[in-house]
Design a protein that fits this description.
It is a single chain. The protein is α+β, with helices and mostly antiparallel strands. 36% of the residues lie in helices and 26% in strands. The strands form 4 sheets. The chain has a 9-stranded mixed β-sheet. A 5-stranded mixed β-sheet has the order 9-8-10-11-12, sandwiched between helices. The chain is globular, with a radius of gyration of 26 Å.
Length: 357
């Protein structure tokens, strides 16, 4: 997976529309397919693409390790490269004009983010829309009824396939059911259907969810539709679960002391900030020093040992924090009215910070 684009435009407004259109597609890819919530925003001058006019980003978060991941970026390059390499076009009026350029892309890191966010100690946990196999069907054979059970399992698999569900029938005879259960849990297959003689007698199947471990007997009647609905439920539940985790790990802070406390607790920090590069560099240096000191004092098995410097992740777009239910009020007034948490100067932006891969 490597997706990248480079475009040239006649005007800056035209280029800026595409920057946000592409970023929205990246957000939808993460949230609607991978069930990973992301925060849209603008990078600081220090963190933007070198030579570009500005960079927009979608930022993901891995709760297990308390680190953010830059999920994908969409850059407005302005005319810097057009001026450098004399990239121009003939305008409608016949004059030569320099183009406005964009650059955008997302890569295989999307798969890594999905694995880290959803996986557990049993292996992968895949959202149905991203899963190569949505449902695995496993016959539970009993001596003397092998053919009947395998035939019914095949029939179920065919019905699901006809309904557009990505299904695999595992009728291998050299592996027992327990081995197969473990194998497909490791691979993160969202749903497992088991069919044995008792299930056939009861016109039912036994269904297990990979994401929650929930198990239940379901009627054979209308099974394909029920599986489609359950896949949709799993997709939504996985996004909701991680969105709640993300919300709970974003902390509004207005002082340096609180910033370091929450950073060392593995959280992201939303702060009022002066938007000055020197201040940003100072935060990175100070947080690295204090994190190192804290790390040396912590027990060897302390989860906080995953330490390091903080950096700006993004300046969230209007409405992004509200989308996750994050308040930006402190002491009865907007946090942006507070001075910069790091240097005390006038704040210009609400900014998200954290440790990042």
């Amino acid at each position: 997976l490597w997706q990248e684009g480079h475009t040239a435009h006649a005007t800056l407004p035209e280029a800026e529309v595409e920057v946000l259109d592409i970023l929205r597609l990246y957000q939808r890819s993460y949230e609607e397919i991978l069930a990973v919530p992301v925060i849209r925003g603008k990078k600081s001058e220090k963190e933007k693409f070198a030579g570009g006019l500005y960079t927009t980003t979608v930022e993901a978060f891995v709760p297990a390790v308390g680190r953010a991941v830059q999920g994908a970026t969409s850059h407005c390059l302005g005319q810097n490269f057009a001026n450098m390499f004399n990239i121009s076009f003939e305008s409608e009026t016949g004059t030569r004009e320099k183009v406005w350029q964009n650059s955008w892309g997302m890569t295989t890191r999307t798969i890594g983010v999905m694995i880290m966010v959803h996986g557990d100690n049993k292996g992968l946990v895949l959202p149905p829309r991203a899963a190569p196999i949505e449902v695995v069907v496993i016959p539970i054979v009993v001596k003397g009824k092998e053919d009947i059970v395998r035939a019914e399992a095949a029939k179920v698999a065919d019905e699901l396939k006809a309904a557009g569900i990505r299904v695999k029938l595992d009728s291998r005879v050299d592996k027992n059911p327990g081995w197969k259960f473990n194998y497909y849990e490791l691979k993160g297959v969202p749903l497992r259907i088991e069919i044995g003689p008792k299930d056939i007698e009861n016109n039912a199947v036994f269904v297990s969810r990979r994401d929650t471990g929930e198990k239940d007997s379901m009627s054979r009647d209308g099974l394909a539709g029920a599986m489609q609905a359950l896949c949709s439920t799993i997709q939504g539940d996985m996004l909701k679960k991680v969105s709640t985790q993300l919300r709970d790990r974003i902390k509004l802070v207005v002082t340096w002391a609180d910033f370091m406390t929450e950073l060392n607790a593995g959280n992201m920090l939303l702060t009022p900030w002066c938007d000055v590069t020197d201040c940003e560099e100072d935060v990175k240096k100070r947080s690295a020093v204090e994190s190192k000191a804290q790390e040396s004092e912590a027990p060897a098995d302390d989860a906080r040992a995953l330490s390091g410097a903080a950096k700006t992740l993004c300046k969230p777009f209007d409405g992004e924090m509200a989308r996750f239910g994050i308040e930006q009020m402190h002491g009865g007034k907007s946090a942006l009215e507070m001075p910069c948490f790091a240097c005390g100067k006038t704040s210009k932006e609400m900014t998200l910070w954290g440790r990042s891969y």
